[in-house]
Structure formats: C-alpha cells, structure tokens
Design brief:
The protein has about 150 residues and is mainly alpha-helical. It has one domain. Helices cover about 75% and strands about 0% of the residues. The protein contains eight helices and no strands.
Length: about 150
Amino acid sequence: MKRALPILILLACLAIVAPARAQDVAAYAPASGDAAVDRHLTDINDYAARYPAAFADEMSRYYAVPRAYVEAMQQQPDWTAGDIFMACALAQIVGQPCRAIVREWSRDHEGGWKAVAGRLQTEPGSPQYRRLRSALESTYRRWGRPQP
C-alpha cells in the first residue's frame, strides 16, 4: 500500500491538471482563416510551453525579432506563443517590424488573425499566406517536429 500511495497521488494530480489543460487548448482560437495555420499555431503554444527558450531562439534567429522582445511577449498574459509567431511571421512577410503587427493585433483582433491579415492585404489564399504556411513548415523542420 505504501508503494501505491505516490502513484495514487500522481494520478489525482493529473486528473486535476489534465482537464484544465484541455480547456486551455480548446479555448485558443487563432481564427486565421486557414485550418492548417490554426493547427500549427495551437501546436506552437504546446511546443513553446515545453521549450520556451527554443521558441524564443527561433523567433529571434529566423524572424528577426530581438530575443528580449520575444521573451517579454511570452510573459504577457494576453499573448500566446502562436500569436507571437503569427505576428512576427506576418511582419516579416509584409515587410514591417513585429512590433507594428503586435500593435495592430492589440488595437483590434475581434475577427482573429484573418481580420488582422486582411488589414495588411494578406488574406488567406494570397501569395503572402502561402509564404506564411511555408514559414511554418520550415520552422517545424528546424524543430524536428512533425506537422500537426
């Protein structure tokens, strides 16, 4: 019985944490207008939760965002890693600094990323959005992570 007690405690803890985590994942809705992009952004949240430094490295190295800025954004309660990725990847595609897209999202994101991208003339299906999907695929290759 003494050996079973730690296992029972662990199982009880998992029973409490697992539903909360499932609600977090279910609650995240990037609304990019592209189901594949939405799956990637949701998965990026999971990846960055486990590997925050690797996520910050990726954004800094390949999306030209200062690492300190990414780390500061990761600490913001209203920002997810998927949103950080989307803002900075879109910024690179449209030739603006990531901060400009962060401001645009913060100003108005009622229609999700699809609405923000539309205001940047980067609608789903456009050549720019295809570049976004390509950027996501490249990021996943660098991480050695399977596509979601």
